Amino acid sequence: MYIGGHQVFTDKAVFSESYVPSELRVRAKEADMLFKIYYNKLFSTAGLSDITIIYGSIGRVGIGKTTIAKYVARMIREKASREGIKVNTAYVNLFTGPSLYSILSMIVRDAGFNITVRGSPVIDILKAIVDNLYINNSYLLVILDEFQNMLTSPRVNPEDLYALLRIHEEVPSKDGVARIGFILVASDIRALSYMRDIIPQVESQISFKLHMPAYRSHELYEILRQRAELGLRPGSWSDDILMMISETYGEDRGGDGSARRAIMALRMAGEMAEARGIGIIEPNLVRKALSEQEASSIPVREIESLGLHELLILKAVADATVEGIEILTAGELRKRYELLCESYNVKPRGYTQFYNYIRLLSSTGLIESRLSGKGMRGRTTLVRLTPPIPADRLKEVVEKAITLSMSGEGKGETQ
Ligand SMILES: Nc1ncnc2c1ncn2[C@@H]1O[C@H](COP(=O)(O)OP(=O)(O)O)[C@@H](O)[C@H]1O
Ligand SMILES: [Mg+2]
User: Fold this and answer.
1) CATH superfamily for domain 28-212
2) Does the global pTM surpass 0.85?
3) Is ligand 1 within 6 A of the CB of residue 59?
């Protein structure tokens, strides 16, 4: 609770993860380019069939990929609506590599179509969507976020991806007008080479590729300033504190360029100021928020309490991430783990223990693991580093912990 002048937040919603500002002050030009690609098609006879892709730099998160996609989709829907054109939008996150059937269910639900999905074959759902758009003379814009997972998921085959992304050829509309566009969002450029391998006909149809680099400090400053203006009480914040944060995370200053972390730091400092009843975000609170966030993204203590073999597995995952391999199968991880054991001169543990360690590491939140869908080679465990954890820094901490553990000073078991 806060009283009068001690209040810091005027609108906390602008600090939530999923908040998309009504105006982009950074990357506005890029957003406008994307916007125009789709928007202009709404007034052409050919209709809407574009596929574009937004991708980031390897290993970077929180750099606005999802935000710009959602922002553009919303802008298209709203501006078209003012011209009397209905554009339905749907957002689907593909992190779990869902089947085509689940993707279509999500699209139908998100776009608000009155289509029965349950029990219908995929092709009928596709037809129903196309018919629905034809009858209502409306359009559909679909965002497929974390698209790279579709390319590596054993649950999805290239035919499914074709059926979805080339829906106009699979299921032509009665009047021949295309009405469905896609914005693909992928973590990095490797998605494009995967596509070239797996679905070259789709890759060659991508009409626009937007690379989103990590943010520089002046960009983070603009992003923070907007949030401060929208969500903080005037007088509770200063330019100085925004600079402190943007210079910590700016890619040009050696930070990871993440707007997400910058916004979280401002929010955390604001919460501290409110909790202390001072109503002003002082620089020392910002410093505290920055260091707490630093500490919370790499749980050093927790890592130091891990056993040697857990540390080696964690290092294997971190190494792979640094090399640009985001998702590992249990088999690939096992190989890397065995090689590491060899180089540290310890005997690898058996498979049962190995899987136990993976489970334990997942329960700490350091890694994420899940079972793949049924693929050619049956089900397998997939492992990745939890996204917000910076792999290069984690590597350093883990390597230090391994040295400690091997010298017998670690709290964990040694061998
Ligand atoms: N250009 C921008 N303007 C305003 N806010 C931004 C911008 N880019 C990113 N953000 C904010 O930063 C956070 C992370 O962005 P997000 O799009 O989720 O990153 P990514 O998808 O690349 O991981 C979100 O809260 C988002 O609102
Ligand atoms: Mg995202």
Assistant:
1) P-loop containing nucleotide triphosphate hydrolases (3.40.50.300)
2) no
3) no
